[in-house]
Amino acid sequence: MPKRTDIRKIMIIGSGPIVIGQAAEFDYSGTQACKALKKLGYEVVLVNSNPATIMTDPDTADATYIEPLNSQRLAEIIAKERPDAILPNLGGQSGLNLSLELAKAGILDKYGVQVIGVQLDAIERGEDRIAFKETMEKLGIDMPRSKPAYSVEEAEKIAQELGYPVVIRPAYTLGGTGGGLVYNVEELRTVVSRGIAASMIGQVLVEESVLGWEELEVEVVRDAKNQMITVCFIENIDAIGVHTGDSFCCAPMLTIKPELQARLQKYAYSVVEAIQVIGGTNVQFAYNPKTDRVVIIEINPRTSRSSALASKATGFPIALISALLAAGLTLDEIPYWREGTLDKYTPWGDYVVVKFARWAFEKFKGVEDKLGTQMRAVGEVMSIGKNFKEALQKAIRSLEIGRYGLGFAKDFHQKPLSELLELLKNPSSERYFLMYEALRKGAEPEELSRITYVKTWFIEQMKELVELEEKILTYKGQELPPQILTQAKKDGFSDAYLAKLLDLPEAKLRQQRLALGLTQVWDAVPVSGVENAAYYYSTYNGTDKVSTSNKPKVMILGGGPNRIGQGIEFDYCCVHAAFALRDLGYETIMVNCNPETVSTDYDTSDKLYFEPLTVEDVLSIYEKERPLGVIVQFGGQTPLNIASQLQAAGVRILGTLPEVIDQAEDRDLFRKMMEKLNIPMPKAGMASTLEEALTVAGEIGYPVMVRPSYVLGGRGMEIVFNEQQLKEYVAQAVEITPERPILIDKFLENAIEAEADAISDGKHAFVPAVMEHIELAGIHSGDSACVIPPLTIPDQHLQTIIDYTQRIAEQFHVVGLMNIQYAIAKDKVYVLEANPRASRTVPLVSKICNIPMAKLATELIMADFRGQRSDIVKNFKPTALAHYGVKEAVFPFEKFPEVDPVLGPEMRSTGEVLGLANSFGLAYFKAQEATYSPLPQRGTVLMSIAEQDRSPMVIETAKEFQQLGFKILATQGTQKFLQEHGIKAEFIHKIEEGRPNIPDRIMNGDIQLVINTPIGQRSLKDDSYIRKTAIKYKIPYITTVSAALASAKGIAAAKESSSTVVKSLQEYHKEIV
After folding, report:
1. Per residue in 776-823, pLDDT tens?
2. Is the peptide bond prior to 335 cis by the omega test (within 30 degrees of 0)?
3. Of 242, 256, 329, 404, which shows the fewest CB atoms inside 10 Å?
4. CA end-to-end span of the chain
5. What pTM was computed for the model?
6. Is it true that the peptide bond before 936 is cis, omega within 30 degrees of 0?
7. Are strands 534-539 and 9-13 parallel, antiparallel or unpaired?
8. Under DSSP, is residue 546 helix (H, G, I), strand (E, B) or coil?
9. Coil, strand, or helix at residue 457?
10. DSSP state of 705
C-alpha cells in the first residue's frame, strides 16, 4: 500500500518534560517520526513542552508549538492548524492519554481529525486493566489473577481472596507511578490510595504476585496488512519485582530456549493483532520455569523505553518505521539489508547487548536505595560486545560512577559474607557490585540466585570474572603474563580497572597491551529499513571489519547516560555540532553510549561508535579514524573528565583547551584571574581539614556555601548558617583531604541570580542572552525558574554582566561556548562561577532568541582550527524580543515521597518545560501549567512564611492574591505579620497546634495553592509535612517568596487573557527584530 493521500497535515504529540519513567527516548522517537513524515511530503505540526529536545527545534517540524500538554491547549492548536490526522503513539504515555481525552471531549470529531498509528479503542484495550483482561481471556492467554478496585475497601477484599503479597497497578500511568508490591493490609491502604489518585480513571488492579518469575519482553511491529515481525527479544536479568526501567537486561535472550521464545512470539502476535496497533508494540511476559507457566504482564501500544533500546540493539529504527506504517506504507515496501524487504525481517546478530540503569539516590537525602515496581532510574547505558562478559564490563564503565569494573565498589570488599548476603535480600542499585564481592568471598551462584532470583547462568558468568580477577591480583605491582592479559581483555576488563588491580599507571598498562598487539577491533550493526547505514562497536574477540575513509573528519564526544545535573541539553549540543560539521563538509564521528538519545541515532552523524566514554575506548577510536581533532565541550562533564588524559596521549582537542577548562574549575586560579580583571566575586576560601574550614568560615562570615571541589549539578553543596552546621556537614557529607579540599564561599542573601551564555572565537565574544532567575541566589541554576529577557535587572547591571562575560571569555581565550553565573546583591554584580563549555541553557536560549548557539560555536571552533577569521562574533546584533520565555524545572519528588521537596544548591530536577507568551505573567503561568501543576485561578491560598523570609515582597504577594479574589489562610507568625500590614488572613493550625490543621484542610480540598518557605535546618520543628502533603494531594506548592509573587502575577495575566492565542515557535521567531 503506498502512502495515504487523503491526509496532508499530521500532528505529533510529544511526551513533555523528562521525568523518571519518560525520558529522552521520546525525543529520539518523535524526531525520527518528524523526519520520516516530512520525507513522505506531509506537513508536520508538533506539540511538546520540553525545550531541551531536538524535536522542538524550529526546523524539525513545519510548525512547532512549545505549549503545555493538556487538552485545552491542544484543542486551541487543532482549531488553528486544522490537522487531518494525529499520531499519538510516539509521545509516550502523555501522547496516548491526551489523544483519548481529546476524543472523549469531542474535539477530534468537531475538527475532523483522524487518529493514525493506533486505534483509540486499542489504547483502552491495552491500558484499561479490565478491558485488557477481557481481551486476554478471549485469546486464551494467561494473566496473573486479578480484580479491579475503585476504593481502598474493595482492594482489601480482593487482596484477602488472592493472598499477600499482591501487586497494585493503577490504570493509565507511566513508569509504575502510584503502584507497588504490598505484603500487608497497612501497605495496601497506602499504595491503593496513592494509585487511585495517580490513575486517570481512579482505577487500580489488585493482582496476584509473580515476584521472582523471569521477566521477558518481545518488541513487535505490525502493519495495515496484518504482517507482523519481531524486532527483538529482551531478557531481563533482574526478575519480576524490579521495574523494567531499573532492570539490568540483555538482548538477545541468552538463557531462554527457542521453543519458549516461539511461544512468547505467538502470544505477542495474537495480542497485537487483537489490539490492532500499527507500528511498534512492547509486550511483557512473566515466566515461571518451575511450572512452565507464562503470563502476560502488560503491553505498551506505543514506542517506549524498551523500543528505544530494541532499536539501538538491533539497528531497527522502530519509531521511523512506525511513522511510515502509520502513513499507509507496509513492511513489504520498506528495504531490508539482509532479505530485500522488511516483512522478511528476523532478529539477527552475532553480538550481545546489555542495558544497565543509572540512578540518582545520592541526590535525595533520606531516600532508601531500594528497587521495586516503581521506576527510580534517571537514565541508562547500553553496551555491545561479542559475549555477555565483555558487554557487561563495557556497560559498567559507561555508567560514569567512577567505577571501571565490578569489584572494590565502596567498602563492600571489607564486609563479611553474612552481611553481603543480608544486603542482597532487597534489590538496590548496588546489587551486582555486592554480588561480585559475595562471589569473591565464596558464595555459591545457586545460593545467590535463591536470594536475588537472578538466574544462575548470569551469576556463573560473574563468578568466572571474579576468578580471573583473583588470579590478576596475584601480580600486583608487576606486568601481567601475556596470556592472562589477553584473556582479561577478551572478558571485557578495562585498562583503567586492570591498572587499579595491579597498582600501575593506566598509561603503562596501555603500553604493555599495545606492545603485545592487543587492540580493539571493530564490527558493525547494520540498520534496517534504510539503504546502507550502520553503527559500530569495539571488541577484543574477533577481527576488524570496519573500514575508514580519508576524508577530513571530526570526532564529537557525547554525554553518556542521562542523570540529574547532566540531561539531554548536552545531547542537543552534540547533535547540532554534528549537523554543523556535516554542513561544513567534514565527516562526523559521534561517540556515545546512551540508547535514549538523538545523538545515537544512526543518521545524526556519518559514523556512530556505540562505546563507553573512557580514555581507553576513545583513544582506540581516535587511533583508528585519525580525525583532525576531538570536540569535548558539548557533552557536559563526561568528556571534560577525560580531556586532559586524551590530550596527554596525543589527541588534539578542538575549541577551548582542557587547561582553560581546568583553570575555570580551579577556584584559586579563577579568583586570581577575576582579581586581575577587577571583577568582584563573593569572599571565599578553601579548606583541607575541619579546623581550616571553621577558621575560613569565621573570617568570611556566615552564612556560607560549602561544597566539594570539581562537581557538576551542585553535588554535596549546602548553605551553612553556623559553626555547628559546618561541623555536621564535614562529618556527614564529604571526606576532605588536601587532594579533595572543600570550597567555602560567602553566601549572598536575597541576591538576584542571573546567568549569561557567551559565544567566543578566542579573541572576541558576544552574549546572545542574559537570563534572570526567578528564585533568589541559593537555589541551583538547574532547579530555578528563569526568564528571558530579564524582568527586574536594571540596564546598568545588564551591561555590566555582558561586559564581564565578554572580558572573561576573551581573557580565557574561550573558543566555542561559555556559561557564567552571576549574583546581584546590594546594587553590585558578582561573578559566582564560569564554565567554559556548553551549559544546560543552550537549547533554551537558542529557541527563545532564535540563535543556533551550538551551530555557531562549532563554526567558530573549526575556523579557529583552520586559522581562518570568522565574522560571526563581529556581525552579531543583539535582538529585541517581543515575547518572554520562562523555563521551569520538573522534579521527581512524587517518586520519593519520603524526601522534603525543598530547593537548594544541589540540583534535583530531572527535566524542564518552557512557557512562551507576549507577557511575563502569562509565560510564567504556562510554564507552571506545563509542569502538570497548574496554578489555580480562584480559591484559597495557604501562606506559611518562615521568619527570615518575611519581607515587603510577602506583603506585595498577599495583596496581589487578595485583589485576585483569593481567600488567604496563614499560620500564626505569618498571620500576625500580614495583619500588621493591613492584610486579612484566617488562622490555620500547624500539625502540632491542634485540629483541623494544614494536612486536614489540604485533604478536605479546602486549599488550592500552598506557599510555604521552609524554616530551614536551624529549626527543631520539621515543617516538611506541609510540602509532602501538597505533593501527595497534587496541590501546587511554592517554596520561595519570589516564585510566589511571580505566580500571583501569572494568575492575574491568565485571568486577563481569557482566550489565549497559541503561537508556533516559528511565529514567535518572525516577530524578533
Report:
1. 777 888 888 999 999 889 999 999 999 999 999 999 999 999 999 999
2. no
3. 256
4. 47
5. 0.92
6. no
7. unpaired
8. coil
9. helix
10. E
